Amino acid sequence: MKNEHEIAQGAQTPSTPRRTRPPRLDWAAIAPSVAQLRRQGYSARETARRLGLNIKTLEAHLRRHRIRHAIPMDRPDQVRRTCLNCDTAFVADGRFLRLCPDCRAIFS
């Protein structure tokens, strides 16, 4: 009984390979814009918003290509942060700073 089922399944396999759908996004065209926005200090969320992408799609792309942080740090006591007010990425001088310098100037 078991062998008959396996034989019947083996006979039904298609001879043509399965087709996958084409990619929805042309990353070759989008990647330079993503790199430019990340160099300017925009967070992944703001970058996705400006390019009209889904945030999860962009995060998966950055993770897949091991693109972590666009802003280099000079000292070990600096911390990468995303501003709680405007969502831009910045390097904070201390671990308790949560607003970028521009927003800090507005609220001060």
TrEMBL record:
Q: Name one GO biological process term.
A: regulation of DNA-templated transcription
Q: Name the species this protein comes from.
A: Komagataeibacter diospyri
Q: What is this protein called?
A: Uncharacterized protein
Listed InterPro entries:
Sig_transdc_resp-reg_C-effctor, WH-like_DNA-bd_sf
Region Disordered: list its residue ranges.
Answer: 1-24
Query: GO molecular-function annotation terms?
Result: DNA binding
Q: Where on the tree of life does the source sit, at the highest rank?
A: Bacteria
